[in-house]
Amino acid sequence: MRYSAMMMLVLVMGVGAGCAISNTANDLRGIKGVDGDKLTHINTRNYAIHLFMTKPIWGDASLNATVQHFADEAKKVGATKVRIVQSDESVMWYFPPVLGFIFTPVYSSVAGDAMLP
After folding, report:
1. How far does CA 37 lie from the centroid of its chain?
2. pTM > 0.85
3. Domain of residue 8, residue span
4. Which DSSP letter does residue 31 get?
């Protein structure tokens, strides 16, 4: 039972790997940014499988790739400037045990504001 649940979780991670997900919040109830700019909040997440914790083999969840996806989303909403508020990269070498050292699930996220003209 334990191994079947672990394999199911590994399968779900494998299917979800290699994708970037972005969410935007446009309705800030009329609140402006610090400089008086109109804002859109963007949150971008990347999931991937890396080889030996460093080399992307299925997707790319490095912080650099996630910032690029964030910038692409900012361009889609028409932003001229961005302010990154938070970023995080998690290397889950411990999951699944032993196999995680070779095929490592990696997750990274970037959240920030896109300033609209």
Report:
1. 25
2. no
3. 2-116
4. -
Instruction: Reduce the secondary structure of 42-80 to three states and give it as a string.
Output: EEEEEEEEEECCCEEEECCCCHHHHHHHHHHHHHHCCCC
Q: Which of 64, 58, 45 is nearest to 108 (CA)?
A: 45
Query: What's the pLDDT tens digit per position in 23-78?
Result: 999 888 888 777 788 899 999 999 998 888 788 888 889 899 999 999 999 999 99
Q: Count the domains in the chain.
A: 1
Give the three-class secondary structure for 89: strand
Contacts of 91 (CB under 8 A, 6+ apart): 50, 53, 104, 106
CA angle 55, 57, 61 (to 5 degrees): 70
